[in-house]
Design brief:
Shape: globular
Number of domains: 1
Order of helices and strands: HHEEEHHEHEHEEEHEH
Strand content: 5-15%
Largest sheet: 7 strands, parallel
Distance between the termini: 49 Å
Mean pLDDT: 94
Number of strands: 9
């Protein structure tokens, strides 16, 4: 059955319930849910930094991040041969990305938060927690139930950060601008080099990837902003440059010291 939003409301509701039940009967669903419940509000009152994958990420002084909880996204491991920095965890929910990065995900000991559809590619690992993605637009304050992918993995990381209790979160490398243009969400094949991410090999050599939906991403970012602020929390943008103006700007150095 499909999560296609073009289905009539009744069929779509049945499809979402069916897919939810398919996940809930798996043993890995129960283990992942327990793992998520164990970290609910674990870091209450603390700060976190989300490392997005735009080219500006290369301008980061990673030594600043040694004493703060960090969320790496998707293929952040392509950064590892350039720096000794390692994120506290990695989040990835896009099926194509999980398939392409499966070799790393299977071998790393870094805690991973992956979409439940990645179970077939990665399998059961103690450091992997699987997330169930709902088909409805929402902001999950409790990720042990489900999350909304929100057209960008950054939104998933923001939901996880909220779930874990972080009071202030800063984004870096969130350029919110892509050199490659085309219809939103269309699956395309990459060229020889990737100009849209921090590493030219991020999507390259004919790998498939989905063009961004910047409008829907902004809808998600605004939903996250409202959820945080309604609970007395804050999201900042510490990206050097970029075109995301929904969150107040602050230098990373200042975010970490105020």
């Amino acid at each position: 059955m499909s999560n296609n939003p073009q289905l009539n409301p009744y069929r779509r509701a049945v499809s979402l319930i069916y897919n939810r039940l398919k996940w809930d009967i798996k043993l890995e669903s129960w283990r992942s849910r327990k793992s998520l419940k164990n970290i609910k509000n674990k870091y209450k009152g603390e700060k976190a930094v989300i490392l997005c994958n735009g080219p500006s990420l290369n301008k980061t002084n990673f030594s600043l991040l040694n004493n703060v909880y960090t969320f790496g996204l998707n293929k952040i491991n392509l950064l590892f041969d350039k720096t000794s920095f390692r994120p506290s965890c990695i989040v990835s929910v896009n099926k194509l990305v999980i398939e392409q990065n499966a070799g790393f995900f299977k071998n790393t000991e870094i805690p991973l938060y992956l979409d439940s559809k990645g179970l077939n590619d990665i399998g059961k690992k103690e450091n992997v927690t699987y997330l169930h993605s709902t088909g409805y637009r929402s902001f999950a304050k409790d990720c042990s139930i489900s999350i909304d992918q929100g057209y960008t993995v950054t939104y998933v990381a923001l939901q996880l950060a909220y779930h874990m209790g972080f009071t202030e979160v800063a984004l870096i490398g969130c350029d919110h601008n892509f050199a490659t243009k085309g219809p939103a969400n269309k699956t395309v094949e990459s060229g020889a080099s990737d100009p849209n991410h921090f590493d030219p090999n991020y999507f390259s050599g004919g790998e498939k990837w989905q063009l961004p939906d910047l409008f829907e991403s902004e809808v998600s970012y605004k939903m996250a902003k409202d959820a945080y602020e309604n609970d007395g929390r804050k999201i900042f943008n510490s990206t050097k440059g970029g075109e995301l103006d929904i969150y107040p700007r602050i230098k990373l150095e200042d975010f970490l010291t105020i």
